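Students often ask why we bother predicting the structure of a whole assembly rather than each chain alone. The short answer is interfaces. A chain on its own may look different once its partners are present, and contacts between molecules only exist in the joint model. In this exercise we take two input lines together and write out one structure for the complete complex. Read the inputs first and try to guess which parts will touch.
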Amino acid sequence: MVRILVVDDSTMDRRLAGGLLRRDPSWEVMFAEDGENALQQIELHLPDLVLTDMQMPGMDGLQLVQAVRESYPLIPVVLMTARGSEELAVQALQEGAASYVSKRQLSFDLVETVERVLNSADKRRNFSRLMTRLKSRELQFELENDLTLLPAAVQYMQDMCGEMRLIPEADRLRVSVALEEALVNAYYHGNLEVSSDLREQDHAAYYDLAKARSEQEPWSSRRIHLKVQLSSRECVFSIRDEGPGFDPSTLRDATAVENLDRPCGRGLLLMRTFMNSVEFGPSGNEVILKKEVKAQDPREDEDDECSRDVAETENDSAV
Amino acid sequence: MLMKKIFSGEFSDDILMITINQNAGSLAEAEIVDSMKQVTDQAARPGLRGAVVDFAHVDYFGSLMLESLRHLWNQLHAQNSRMVLCHVSAIGREILEISHFDRLWPIVSSREEAVALLKESPPAEKADA
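Now the answer. The structure tokens for the assembled complex follow.
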């Protein structure tokens, strides 16, 4: 049974939308009269889709979209738009609403739109389930020394760790911070060979030298090699530059009071704090960052979703 | 697509309110450095009591943000002005604590608290940090 929550402060509009949806006997329709009530209903009887009005007293449709995206990212939200709510609807779509249907066209477009969104959500949910069962993944990138490519690489690694549910969300940000620091080191200190000492002496000279070298041989053609091994045991990120390397033992302790005022070693400090281990290769131009994975049964999340089926339904209460 | 500047600063009486407009990991190096330059220019205003740095739009940041803030603080400190941070996320606070910058810059929950903190005492005496 597919469960759809209709959210609207107008009793008439709720009845109209509910009536259209109930023509499909496999769709069970629940109702809420505002955003707050909708969130309570979602918590009690997790729906497959939320259909919401935009302008409501209290929490409006946009705020509801934001709240659902935050807490229930796999539940799609479809908007019902009326004249005057277009701007709010555009914002809601930007915030992640799945689709919209005009209230004036409800009887023509609603069922088709809901069917399309449900199909798409189903695919997404199954893909998400599949990814949690992926046991290992290995990837290798050879990247130009290009600062615009590196954030995309970090985002991709963060997404992969998320898809496979290897690392909880808050920890994924920590991993991203560590990876950014390692990539920045590979870019500036490794491939372009500009040192922190120069930055300490003269900020502008540091960036001028980096810019000049990024356009000159041999620095400009150097690459960053990124190897990623993800498994249910650990995530290993190896980042290697093509520079001459360095002796990591020469790094200053960034937390020492005498160094607090100096721009040195903080990136490595963040890497070491946010990863379980950080090791340099013998030549100093490769760093290997490891993050342990805490065992988690991929079916746990599905069990949470299934638990809705035993919850008591009071779906007509708000009509 | 045009990106917002990483930092924006506006004066509220004798206090410079600095907003960090987006996440700024260390890969956003050029943007951070360019944008901080404008803020440090603003911070050079004579008679400035201090600066509030608002992290409300920031989930995380990296060593370069720390370095830029340290740079700003050096300038403020040299002119006997203070710096207070607000709306710092849990991870942001962790990053500040790890690097011990929480010892230099008070961290409070809101702009109002930050302003009150700057106003309750005269600008700090210049120290030797």
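Check your guess against this: DSSP finds four helices and five strands in chain B.
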